[in-house]
Design a protein that fits this description.
There is one protein chain. This protein has 217 residues and is mainly alpha-helical. The chain has 2 domains: 97 residues, Orthogonal Bundle (Endonuclease Iii, domain 2), CATH 1.10.1670.10; 101 residues, Hypothetical protein, domain 2 (Endonuclease III, domain 1, Orthogonal Bundle), CATH 1.10.340.30. The chain is built from 12 helices and no strands. The two termini are 30 Å apart. 33% of the residues are buried. The mean pLDDT is 94. The structure holds iron/sulfur cluster. The site of iron/sulfur cluster has 13 residues, from helix 9 and helix 12.
Length: 217
Amino acid sequence: MNRTRSLILSWFSSFGRSFPWRSTDNAFHILIAEMMLRRTTAQAVARLYSDFIVEYGTVDQLASANVEIVSTTISSLGLQNTRSKHLVTTAKIIQSDFDSLVPSGEKDLVSLPGVGKYVANAVRNFAFHYSVPLVDGNILHFLNRVFSLQFKNAYNEQAWSFMNTFGAPHKPQFYFGIIDLVSLVCLRKNSRCEECPVRPVCDSSLKGMQKRKESGC
Ligand code: SF4
């Protein structure tokens, strides 16, 4: 596991993607990004994120925003009606219940609309530097390919428990590395195994090699 983690971190330092939400300590900006990143691609978020932050980058700005205008602004992400309601309501709650400061506790974070365990832990890890694991669909896909692990969904306790061990000490770059590997290399169709840093330790790739050997290809 240590070797796999090192391979991911080393690959990320050379080939990882840069996004504005990865290079800020502003917890509110990170929370906005993580809420936007659910069920869409990082590229789609990147296209509108910086302008959104200029317009709605403070708790007061977003709390007083018109939900319909926010919805139109983020329509390219999909789920814009729900997402815009969640964003504006979350800002209002942070303003009224948390003195306009993003809370750092998991319980407080998951009490916000549109914030589940993944987003809460992403904010705790990336903004507040808590050593906490993350599990989402991309991570499950990666675990399936590399370790042949099949977890039912991202709420599965065993998946969280596995990542608690495998991901420790839970550096943000480790999670960014997995996210980028799944987006760029370990694609759901036509994985680019020949470019993959974890190929030497990947179950899926090793099984493929074994099959090719057996069939004489
Ligand atoms: S070696 Fe292939 S299957 Fe394994 S993680 Fe890399 S890209 Fe995915």
